[in-house]
Request: fold
Amino acid sequence: MKGRNEVAVGAVVILAIALIVFGTIWLQGRGFGREEMVLQARFREVGQLLNGNPVKVRGVPIGRVQSIDLDPGGAGVIVSMRVKSDIRLPEDPVVILSPESMFGDWQAEISPRSAAPDFDYAEAPDPAVLPGATLPDISRLTAVADRIAQNMAILSERFEIAFTQETAENVRRAIDNIQSISQQLTNLVTKQQQAIDEVSANLQETTDALGQAVETVNRTFAEVEKAIGGDRLANIVGTAERATMQIDSLTRELLSTSRSLRTASATADSTLRALGNVARSIEQGEGTLGLMLRDTSLYWRLVESNAEVQALLRDIRQNPRKYFTIRVF
Reply:
């Protein structure tokens, strides 16, 4: 009987040891007959993270935290995580520590950097060590909220101090002034709108006139195109060429006439100089004409001779037989 009790006690002890071992392995997240790998991540701080806290990808547990150690420089914390070896990590992976529940449990979430690009990750010199970031827990959020509440209370007190009855009156007067200015601006805008309407009307009239001018130009271009497309342009060019030839001929004739005129002008000039010399000679009493012009008695003799010739002619007309004898054979 005594031997049986000892065997039972030994079996219980062995079973307890086995349960402790298997429980420890289970709490550490180690699987039986399952291959695992170790990942490391660097953080500036780890908050309330403990060994054995779960490691998740997209909310699915894939392992547990194995160890938490300060890095050699003391500027960060290195967290080792034992996870399933067949897990495919996301592209550009990072590790984010955050509270898992409101009871103080924490977790390590592996996610792509693009899912939370604004977080301040602790980069590691070793590329095999993943960057990590730590979110604040509820207590920190509560402390921050308390500081915000205190700041709001201070602002409220200062607002009550600054916003007195006089301030309210000043604000009311400022609002009245703003309303008055707004009315003035409205009146100004109305006047400017009328001016703009007039300018728009003038612009419309100008646009209409320009449209008519454009139509006229288009018609002119159409006529020009018709002239170019038909024989009118050739006729115009031919007429222009003939006119150019006639102008050239006329120009040559004018040049010839000009040369003749220059010759005639030279001859006339020579003749006039000769006449001038004759006139000076007559004026000076040289020659027969000069003597005649200077001797007035010759003039009176000519006058008398002319009178006698006139009297002779009258007498011949009156008495022709006196001067002429007509005989008929």
Notes: The two ends are 231 Å apart (CA to CA). Helices lie at 2-27, 138-162, 165-229, 232-283, 287-294, 296-318. The first helix runs from residue 2 to 27. The longest strand covers residues 60-70.
